[in-house]
Structure formats: C-alpha cells, structure tokens
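User: My collaborator sent over this chain with a note saying "see what the structure looks like." That's all I know about it. Can you take a look?
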Amino acid sequence: MPQALILLAKKRLPVETFALEMTDETIVNFRGSERPAPRNDDTGASSQERGEEVMFDRREINIILSVYGRMVAQGEWRDYAIGMGREAAVFAVFRHSSEMPLYRIEKHPKRRREHGLYCVVAPGGHILKRGHELAQVLRVLEPKRPQLVE
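Assistant: Without extra context I'll predict from the sequence alone. Here is the result:
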C-alpha cells in the first residue's frame, strides 16, 4: 500500500509528520451574550490592568447599529469605523468615507464613575453628551421631531 502524502508548500511530506494529539478537555458551548471566563486570570486584575483592549459588546453594537441604520436610511451617514484600544473603544461615523468622522461614539471604562462610560464627540472634539446608558447618550444624534402646536 502506498504511504499517504500531503502536499504542503510544494513539498510532499508524509502524513506521520503531522500527527495531532487529542486531549480529553470538555467542549463547552456558549450563547451569544455569554462570555467564557478568562483561563489565566489568577490575579483578579481587571481587563485594564491586564492590558486587554476595550471593546463594545454585542448589546452595545446592536444599539449603535440601530441608530446608524436609521441615519443611513435618511441619507445622513454613509460609513463607519470601529477602533479598539487599551483606553477606549470608538465607533466613528462618516458622511463620506474620505473625510474626518462626523461623530465618534466612545466607551471609556476609566471614566465610568466620574462622567459616565459613554460619550458622543463632535468633529472638533467637543463632547455633545456623556452618560452611563448608551441609548440615552445616543439620543443626541437623533434628529429633533417637530411637535404639533395648537
């Protein structure tokens, strides 16, 4: 019987060189909103102290994208960008993809206690609104609806 071969980077190597070890680790399924616990978190340090990046979670992204979708449907916004770093996560909104962001929706965990976790920033760096609830902060981006006066 011929020996099984694998083609890898234009070289023919025998299958035995790619032997994989199987472990008896249990497989755990997670739903979308659940996050697995970090494996090496023996110190009890926060994500900031461990040097991890700040990110928007699924709930926050859904809230932001619902506002974004309404504004795209109205023709006001056309593009977005998401940035993540050690200090903050940023969702930038553009009218045209080649210009500066029209608005920046920022998440700053270090500012949670003093000013609120979220803020909306205008192009010049002027903070339009800060707060602890993302949906409340994003209301500053919604167009004012005319009210009927009798």
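A starting point for your reply to your collaborator: DSSP finds three helices and seven strands in the chain.
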